[in-house]
Amino acid sequence: MEEDVFAAITANDKGRIAQLMAAGPGAAHARNAGGISALMQARYENRMEIVDLLRKAAGDLDIFESSALGDVARLKKLLANDGELVKARSADGFTPLHLACFFGQLEAAEILVQHGADANAVSPSRIAVIHSAAASRNAALLKLVLRAGADPTRNNSVATPRCTRRPCTTVWSGRRRCWIRAPIWPSRAMRARLRPIWQRKMAAGKWSSC
Q1: Rg of the chain over CA atoms, in angstroms?
Q2: Which of 29, 97, 144, 147 has a 20 to 30 Å separation from 121 between CA atoms?
Q3: Which residues constitute the domain of residue 43?
Q4: Closest to 30 (Cα-Cα) out of 3, 67, 52, 64
Q5: In terms of pTM, does the model score above 0.70?
Q6: How many structural domains is the chain composed of?
Q7: Which residue spans within 85-180 are E strands per DSSP?
Q8: Residues 57, 151 share a domain
């Protein structure tokens, strides 16, 4: 059953998802071998019609699903019952704040920050909350996590002694004095908003370019 559900999600086969759900309630609650729910997988793959189908049958969402989908009422209820959920990690290592930011859920992200979410949390794959906010291309989300203390200089790449990839337009690595190209900034607009911070640091002699 689980394999069929995830194959249908990948194929964007809404009819097959409907058939599987009609055959048994387990389809809406399926998880893959990595522990990711069918609902989250559909959201990751941007299969929004399938997300709607699964959501109707899934019942109460967990902290990760409610953060990713912006179900504010459910999110508030979960956090009221257990404030420690704000620190929880998904099967793939993300915090609720990571997911709210990545999927552009500003109100959900605000609630998580109000409940003490760590704006500098980093996943095992080295994705920080600020990377998720930048990926959403939502300036309000980026400002939110910066106000919450997110480090704008954090990168998710391994620094090399000398960067040979120019122009050096990305994120500072604190371990070495080197700017390195990072795929985490998906838009020039986001880089433009952070560039004044980098330039002030360089002008003060705290950082250097290659």
Answers
A1: 19
A2: 29
A3: 2-156
A4: 3
A5: yes
A6: 2
A7: 171-173, 178-180
A8: yes
Q: In 10 A of CB 56, how many CB atoms? A: 10
One-letter amino acid of 19: Q
**C-beta of residue 101 within 8 angstroms of C-beta of residue 141:** yes
User: Is 175 in the same domain as 71?
Assistant: no
Closest to 69 (Cα-Cα) out of 89, 39, 45, 92: 39
Same-domain check for residues 77 and 168 = no
Tell me, yes or no, whether 189 and 117 share the same domain. Answer: no
Residues 6+ apart with CB under 8 A from 202: 208, 209
DSSP 49-101: HHHHHHHHHH-S--HHHHHHHT-HHHHHHHHHH-GGGGG---TTS--HHHHHH
Burial 188-206 (b: 16+ CB within 10 A, else e): eebbebbeeebeeeeeeee
Pair 13, 107 in one domain: yes
Q: Residue 41: which CATH number? A: 1.25.40.20
pLDDT tens readout for residues 86-145: 999 999 999 999 999 999 999 999 999 999 999 999 999 899 999 999 999 999 999 999
Is residue 149 domain-shared with residue 187, that is, in the same domain?
no
